[in-house]
């Protein structure tokens, strides 16, 4: 099936080796949630700039220690937040490596928002644009998950290239319109979802899924396409009249 005027999505940052010749620049924001060394290694090597959101520094430090990695090989470019979560020993360790540890006491912005603000300052200084990967944000406390989903929903037009990655899945916002999602079936599991979060309803059409939709209304009061399946060997096409969240499980 051919479609035009669509946004094409490629999650090449999940590949074991970074693609050569890519013009994409990625920023990694490590949130204060459980993480494994394996996923951290993969995303760290796929990204160009690294930031810990307050207690995310604890999570990175502890995951690297548990994995037996050399901590000095994973030095973030910045640690930022209100600093109510970072442990004193972790703060002192990274300060000894000359990592800027910036306290922003504002109670009107979360640590995630403060770190994205830091990315925007970096972009202004360098004159370039980064795609952002959040390590965490869709697991742990429900209120934090809802904040991630809400904030990325709000940012969808000013900076749509933000992905949230956990041990189990990757997700991001698809704004209204047509989307083609490149599927690497070696990286992704079969289960996916199209979630009408933050909207009254949307009309969905799809191809490349086991249970495709054709101008089907989706809402929290009606149908929500959860536990749908990717079709082996196929990419996914989605048309939506309102912004939705797309999630797919990782292998």
Automatic annotation (TrEMBL):
Group of enzyme by EC: transferase
GO molecular function, one term: thiamine binding
Source organism, top-level taxon: Eukaryota
Swiss-Prot/TrEMBL GO biological process terms: thiamine diphosphate biosynthetic process; thiamine metabolic process
InterPro entries, sorted: Thi_PPkinase, Thiamin_pyrophosphokinase_euk, Thiamin_PyroPKinase_B1-bd, TPK_B1-bd_sf, TPK_catalytic, TPK_catalytic_sf
Pathway note: Cofactor biosynthesis; thiamine diphosphate biosynthesis; thiamine diphosphate from thiamine: step 1/1
Keywords, alphabetical: ATP-binding, Kinase, Nucleotide-binding, Transferase
Catalytic activity line of the entry: thiamine + ATP = thiamine diphosphate + AMP + H(+)
UniProt keyword Nucleotide-binding present: yes
Keyword Transport recorded: no
Domain annotation Thiamin pyrophosphokinase thiamin-binding: ranges: 177-244
A Pfam cross-reference name: TPK_catalytic
Entry-linked SUPFAM superfamilies: Thiamin pyrophosphokinase, catalytic domain, Thiamin pyrophosphokinase, substrate-binding domain
EC number: 2.7.6.2
Membership in a protein family: Belongs to the thiamine pyrophosphokinase family.
Name by which UniProt lists this protein: Thiamine pyrophosphokinase
Organism in which the protein naturally occurs: Panaeolus cyanescens
